[in-house]
Design brief:
By secondary structure, the protein is mostly beta strands. The chain is built from one helix and 34 strands.
């Protein structure tokens, strides 16, 4: 088990632990990534932020979203020589880095292999005087007492265009800015925009959404948030060294507050600070950290006002299930080597990957009794309509685990997914989230 102190894009500034190299993850080991950020004339850029933006398997495919890997929570700052080091990256992955620095154009560095040696990123300075006011987004962040907030991250998640708001990857504006000592930040757009939606994170403060309009100076006041605590027990015995996750209940764009992790101590207790107030959350045990120790099912709770404390009480460990089966191609083809299956809980922000064997088989342990989904990406194939637990909206398998399932056969057929709820045959549930998870009967 590796302990990491990380500042996260999605999960706040917290101490977390992550199981590396476990049977669920399929990871062979870790590597440290070293590099340097240079500016014009080969001058080192001091204090640049280097973030692991997305990742993907070195070999094979994965159903996990590119920004959902644990390593995508890592970021570091360059030293006086422009150098940086990101520790313990999964050596089965390749990475896409995002490099940002004040008064410089952000740069992505793609297909980074930590085992291939040091990487170098080169940044160009921004001439703000040459950028029209209607293409500049400026703002300032203050803390609870009106003090400037330095080192806050302003991440652009959506852009308002004339035809509506688009969420996700954006190309019309700088993807991210970091506040200076005065709490100021700036973003440049490549074309006129109505507004951008950004998620703001700062050390020891609660995350907050902001709507930023080009040509105006935005003022944001960040809050302390709520401190959440609890205890994990098995019977009457405290459960130590497991990871508890907390995730925002609303997954709507512009509302989602991300996920937060904490590890239980010698008394089975955990604490997560600075959660945004007056919102609903899910609390749960992370599957990969419990392994053969059972499971903590997902529970919803609501936080109170800013500055308060909340105790979710005792989280009891229950018996976990096994889910095992195989992926079969309807045309009799063979599943390619290193194909990975993505297994996720529907309410908890908790997903693991397993690599299929040469017969397309898989096994997952430590599954709580609740709704889960399974998916994978295989070029030229889609989930077959004969799968009884087909999610007709998203093209994955979805259902509730209510027992050990050791014969889950999932069939893929040639084609690309283009379905929707309305395409489900009459009498079929288009979104069988609460139906028992079952496979195709051969």
């Amino acid at each position: 088990m590796k302990r990491l102190l990380v500042r996260t894009i999605f999960g706040g500034w917290v101490a977390i632990a992550w199981w590396l190299g476990g049977p669920h993850s399929g990871l062979a080991g870790t590597l440290d990534l070293n590099g340097r950020v240079m500016g014009a004339g080969g001058i080192p850029v001091v204090g640049a932020e280097v973030l692991v933006h997305t990742a993907g398997p070195r070999v094979g495919t994965s159903g996990l979203c590119p920004s959902c890997y644990p390593d995508c929570r890592k970021r570091v700052t360059t030293d006086a020589t422009g150098a940086f080091e990101i520790e313990a990256l999964d050596d089965s992955l390749l990475f896409r880095l995002l490099v940002v620095a004040k008064d410089h154009v952000p740069v992505f560095v793609a297909k980074v292999d930590p085992g291939a040696g040091a990487v170098e990123a080169r940044l160009e300075r921004v001439d703000w005087g040459s950028i029209p006011a209607e293409r500049r987004i400026q703002g300032r962040l203050l803390g609870p007492e009106g003090e400037p907030v330095a080192d806050a991250t302003v991440s652009v998640e959506g852009v308002e265009l004339s035809q509506g708001t688009r969420w996700g990857a954006v190309s019309e504006v700088d993807p991210l800015a970091v506040t200076d000592k005065a709490g100021a930040f700036a973003l440049a757009t490549k074309e006129p925009l109505k507004a951008v939606h950004a998620l703001v994170e700062a050390p020891n403060l609660a995350k907050q959404w902001m709507r930023l309009v080009p040509g105006r100076v935005a003022m944001g006041r960040l809050r302390t948030g709520v401190r959440v605590s609890g205890r994990v027990i098995a019977g009457t015995t405290p459960v130590t060294n497991v990871i508890i996750g907390i995730a925002g209940a609303s997954r709507r764009a512009g509302e989602w507050m991300g996920s937060f992790n904490a590890m239980t101590d010698a008394h089975g207790e955990f604490t997560v600070a600075n959660l945004p107030a007056n919102l609903e959350y899910f609390v749960y045990g992370m599957m990969d950290s419990f392994r053969d120790r059972g499971a903590v099912v997902t529970r919803k709770f609501r936080l109170g006002v800013d500055g308060s404390e909340s105790n979710v009480g005792e989280l009891k460990v229950v018996n976990a299930h096994r889910v095992a089966g195989r992926i079969r191609l309807s045309n009799g083809g063979k599943v390619p080597a290193r194909t990975r299956l993505w297994f996720a809980r529907e309410e908890a922000w908790d997903a693991i990957q397993v690599e299929l064997d040469d017969q397309g088989r898989f096994e997952i342990k430590g599954v709580p009794p609740e709704a889960v989904s399974l998916g994978l990406h295989l070029q030229g194939y889609r989930m077959a309509q004969k799968n009884p637990n087909l999610d007709w909206l998203n093209g994955k398998i979805i259902g509730r685990v209510d027992r050990d399932i050791l014969d889950l056969t999932i069939v893929l057929e040639p084609g690309n997914w283009k379905g929707g709820r309305e395409d489900a045959p009459r009498g079929r549930n288009p979104y069988p989230r609460d139906m028992p998870l079952r496979g195709v009967k051969d």
